[in-house]
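G.,

No rush on this.
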Amino acid sequence: MERDSLRHLTDQFLSALALLTRLPLPDHRPAGAEAVWAWPLVGALLGLAAAILASALLACGSAPGPAAALTLAGLALMTGGLHEDG
């Protein structure tokens, strides 16, 4: 029973990740509206990826402006530009 629950949660998370990003994902059963709980987790994951990229660029000596532009470009690539207008 627990294994089915874990599989269901995994499918929901993958469904949210597939909806909110363009990352290549393994096959999963789409979860639709049941995956709403995972949207903040996907946002946090994307934020973490952006923070790591920005930190790496700054650690390599990049100026803040270009580092910010490249970080936003990286997010746009990961998300397909979803909500980059904000």
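When you get to it, here's the other one too:
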Amino acid sequence: MTLERLAELLDAFAAQRALSMDLLRGLREGDLARRGRHSVAGDLTVADIVHHKAFHDLLHVRQICELIGARIEAKLGAMRMFV
């Protein structure tokens, strides 16, 4: 992947994230309690979905940290004994 392509993908992600945040900011307290039915998960509220999305983001943060950590760990040399 080129740096230009990466920049395009990050820009697209940022634009989509901004739209999602605008949607969340527009929710009222009562909106979070609205219920729906998911074909697999069953009954859900809007709050359930918001919490799921936040948790899902944390999973990606963990994945990024693991990838960065693996590259750094490979270069620890003698300091590996302190990990």
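The chain has three helices and two strands. The first strand starts at residue 35 and ends at 38.

Enjoy the weekend,
O.
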